[in-house]
UniProtKB/TrEMBL annotation:
This is Stigma-specific STIG1-like protein 1. The chain crosses the membrane at residues 7-27. Belongs to the STIG1 family. Keywords: Membrane, Signal, Transmembrane, Transmembrane helix. The keyword Transferase does not apply. Pfam families: Stig1. It comes from Nymphaea colorata.
Length: 144
């Protein structure tokens, strides 16, 4: 029995050592791997040097100087709060109006701070209503 436990311990130690040795070498290989086409440029979605210079020259428009910037697709929302585009209907830090903060346990649904764990009109997520007569407990309608 003692021989079996010693051999099992030895095998476990060897497996752990192999894992420790192999993992850093795999990470190093992945970090220093060249592109398939042979150039040494970094891979990924990095823009070219010319494009980076062009983007650095022109700052992105801020909504405090151009409020219509918030209507551009991909902006944070149609409202401008503290030089940032936000949606006051869903943003926890600007719920209902700029600076209207929700508590830690609340979410912003249609511009109002609600507790999704216990709100019958927003049970578990915004807009999910519980049936008449049931309660919202821990984000589930009719939990009990």
């Amino acid at each position: 029995m003692a021989l079996l436990s010693k051999s099992l311990l030895m095998v476990t130690i060897i497996v752990i050592l192999m894992a420790v040795v192999v993992t850093p070498s795999r990470l190093t290989d992945d970090l220093h791997q060249e592109d398939v086409d042979g150039d040494d440029s970094p891979s990924g979605d990095l823009p070219s040097a010319g494009l980076r210079r062009l983007l650095a020259r022109y700052k992105s428009p801020t909504c405090d100087k151009n409020p219509r910037a918030c209507y551009i697709r991909g902006s944070g929302g149609p409202n401008c709060c503290s030089k940032k585009c936000v949606d006051v209907k869903t943003d926890r830090l600007n719920c209902g109006n700029c600076g209207g903060r929700c508590k830690f346990t609340e979410s912003c649904c249609k511009g109002k701070c609600v507790n999704l764990a216990f709100d019958k009109g927003n049970c578990g997520k915004c807009g999910k209503k519980c049936r008449r007569g049931s309660y919202c407990i821990y984000g589930m309608c009719g939990y009990v």
